[in-house]
Amino acid sequence: xxxxxxxxxxxxxxxxxxxxxxxxxxxxxAQEVFKNNHRIVLELACGRGEYSNALGALxxxxxxxxxDIKGARLWKGATDALENGLKNVxxxxxxxxxxxxxxxxxxxxELWITFPDPQPQLSRERKRLTSPKFLDxxxxxxxxDTLVNLKTDSTLLYDYxxxxxxxxxxxxxxxxxxxxxxxxxxxELTFKTYYEKIWLKEGKNIKYLCFRLNKI
Length: 216
Ligand SMILES: C[S@@+](CC[C@H](N)C(=O)[O-])C[C@H]1O[C@@H](n2cnc3c(N)ncnc32)[C@H](O)[C@@H]1O
Known about the structure:
The protein is of the alpha/beta class. The chain has a single domain, classed as Vaccinia Virus protein VP39 (Rossmann fold, 3-Layer(aba) Sandwich). Helix content is 34%, strand content 23%. Strand 5 (108-114), helix 6 and strand 6 (142-152) form a beta-alpha-beta unit. Helix 1 packs across helix 4. The radius of gyration is 17 Å and the shape is globular.
């Protein structure tokens, strides 16, 4: 690993707003970590945590946790959160595949999935973060009325997710295949992640889906 990455990785563990594969707070994240009883929103595949930090600054009455496996990327999000005094934002290094080990049933109120790898090969379909396998993992830790927000540049992942939503009879609340095409968008959609900026430079359309995790 490059020296700079190693340094960030070491610092990551020492920060007050970071957690690494711990089961210690399962069921009590809000009370023990955020010192409140506010709802918890997860940003999955958060990378450098732009969404967790921006949403945390916008909505002080929710707690935000960015989750990724890459410590050096999380370090950036955690550093920005500390510099901006965001007490309602934390970063957690963990495999999304094992979320139920770290969170209790019903502990999570909302999900954001920001520019996840589309995993285009059919053989890797189960690795897509909106596959039935992952939706079932989310159902183990989320409240029954949880909304899932997906932001992606990938037409494949966008179409695939809509197909899964239809197959599972879930409700779509918002579906926008080109969020910057004209009409005003809600503040939550205006934040741009590291990868989003790359895809925008390449001229890609940014797509957004908001759907219910469970049937009503
Ligand atoms: C394309 S990047 C997007 C990062 C960020 N959301 C952005 O838009 O800049 C995808 C991220 O997903 C993370 N990731 C992929 N699969 C994961 C998994 N199973 N568990 C945790 N993180 C995962 C990767 O480490 C990577 O940082």
